[in-house]
Structure formats: C-alpha cells, structure tokens
Amino acid sequence: MSLKKILKDKRKNQARKSRGKIVADDAMITGHEPDWNGWETWDVEKFFKEHARALRFYNYYCKAKDLKKDVILWMDANDYSKDEIRCFKKSPDHVPGMTTGALCRCINNGMPSLHPDHQDYVDVMKGRVAVTDDEDFIHSQVRLAIAEGRKVVNEVNNDPNVKPKVSPLVHLENKINRGILVDIGEMLDLLIENINPKKLKFDLYKRLHDHAVPANGLSFVEAELAKQYNEMAAAYNKEDPDLVEGYSYLTRPQLLKWIEYYDGLYADLEKYKASLKSKRKPRKAKAPPTAEKQVSKLKYQDKDADYKLTSIHPTKIIGAERLLVFNTKYRILTEYVSDNPMGFEVKGTTLQHVDEEKSRAIKLRKPDDFLPIVLNKTARQIDTAWKKLTTKESTPNARINDSMVLLRTL
After folding, report:
1. Taking the alpha carbons of 291, 296, 299, 302 in that order, is the dihedral positive or negative?
2. Which domain holds residue 142?
3. What is d(CA 57, CA 61) in angstroms, rounded to the nearest whole number?
4. One domain for residues 44 and 149
5. 317-330 pLDDT per residue, tens
6. pTM score, whole prediction
C-alpha cells in the first residue's frame, strides 16, 4: 500500500471519529470545513467558489458512507416517509455517492440549494458552467438509493428462513384467539344445540385461569361476549329484523334465559379481573431523595457580618416541624410551620409541606434585640416575645433566597 493511500485513509478515519465539524488536519491545503453562516453577504462568485471547495473538501476527508447520516437528516427535513428512510438505510454504503452526501451536509449547515443570483454567475462564466438546483439532483439520487435499499428489504421479507416480527399486541391477540375464545365458541355451539343454558357446565372464571389470560387480554374476551350479548338483546327487543328472524327458533322466555346466562358470564369476567388485581404486587414506594440531595440547589445566606449570624446546615430543615429564617436585606423574620407529620422537605429552592395559616413573617425594628431570643429561647418564649412586636404580620411564601439566614429548626 502506498504512503499516499495510508495517509488518505488515516485522514478519513479521523473524520469519521470526529463529532460535529470535521477535523481538517491538512487545513493548510484544504482549508477548514465550509461555514455557510452569512453567505447572503457574499458575492455570487465567492459563493460558487466555496461551493466547489466544499465538494473537494468532503471528498478529501470522507467516504460516501460517512455522509449517509447527513443525507438521512436532509430526508427527514424534506418529509420522506419512515419507510423510505428505512429502505435508504438498507442501501449499499457507496449509495447515493459522495456528491449527494456533501451537498446534503452543506444544506444542513445552512447553504441554499440554489443561489438566488445564480444566473449572474452563469453570465460571468459566459456559459461555461450550468447551474442547477442541488436539491433536484439530491432527490434523484436519493430515490435511486431508496430503490436499492428496497430490494434488500424485499429479499429479507421473502426469505423463508427469516421470521417476520410480530408486535406484542398481535402476539397477545393470537394467543387469546387460539385459547379462551375457542372455548367460548364451543360453549356457544353447545348452547345452540341444547337451547337450555342450565345443561351447560361452562365455568368462564375457571377457563380464564386455565388459559392464564392476562389483564390486557381481557378486552378481547369482553368484546366477544359483548358481540354475542348485543345480538341477543337486539333480537329480544326487536331492534333488528334480521336478528329477530335469526333467533326465531327460540321462544322469548328461552332467549331471555340466554341473556341472563350471559349476565352470569360477565359476572365471572369481573370476578377474574378482581382476582388479578388482588394478586398484583403493590407498587414499591419510591424512596424520597436524601437530605443532601434535597438541599443541593437551595439558595440561602451562609453568614452575615452585620448581624453576626451564621446559617445552620440546610439538611437540618428536612424533617423539622418549624424553621426560623431572617432576611438580612429587609430585616424580615419568618417562621415556617409544617403541615406534615414527617416535617419539611425541600424541592429546588422551595420548602414543601408549609402550613400557610400557621406560618408567619414580621419586620423587626430592632433585630439585635430580638434575634438572640430566636436563637436561644424555647418555642413558647419565642411566641410570647413575638406577640409583643407591634409591626404588622404577613403570610410568607415558601421560597428561600440568598438573602435569608437559616437561624434555627424546632
């Protein structure tokens, strides 16, 4: 292998591994990956020179399969169907080619598919070039790639050794059709033969258990019973002449007994539903986040030199019944009271389970006199001193901010 080919393969491997912009190791020769921001301000000649350089750049650093993801992104933006994109992905690596992939990458990065002044460029070049809409070319190549991919898809679909995928819902429906619905069909045949429901020994509850019908399969059973029941009811109520004629071999009392028999089948179905619910394991309660995690985003004032205050550790808030904070910016003392037996929780910067009626806030005229009471006295002594304050109380919101010192929890 020649040194030139080794270096070229190395450059292409680096381009494939890079994310976002393609790393141009030989930028002194090729320039960096084209950037189409601000192309509107370029003259038309500069635009087409960059257009040509872009094709050379991607051919230098990439292979056709490296740019297929850019084609898929372009297809998605141009309303190609999921089936068409699926077939495109199955096409060979070299399809739809380097030029198509490079143009799609340029358009995805902001290049217009046809410059609005393209005719001026044709005139400047005196007819030596022909300018076409890039997207017309891309569409034609993508359609060819889709056709190639569809051949692969069809070969797989026609291969007898490849089993087609069946959705879980279809699989469930097939299971119900081959199981419990067969039993119900046999029961109906016996009912027609014997006419008298009392002679039937059909236990729907037991049959459902025997077939282990899951909860999401009961809708198929219910739909089958409803279809048969509604026919009988319509014949009994003479709502449909065809059904009246179809059930004419039964007397009205006999038909009524059939309807009542189906009422019993519905009752068995409901009992089976209840049995499934009783067996269902209770959902495991989600463990609450740790105290450290709850207060990780809490904003509060750690220290204040003017009032000589230091906040308690915020994890002490979790589970506390009362919290006292002081807003150093506005001299507002707030007492939060929890309405939850488990105490406070914190979500973001907000206290949870705050009793708005019992919580209170008040502006202190002389913080230096009152704050020592808050820090050192009992809850009853704090309450007694609070009642002597003459400023007006207010109801606080539950949000803690970076002007608040966390004084104490009780």
Report:
1. positive
2. 3-158
3. 6
4. yes
5. 999 999 999 999 99
6. 0.38
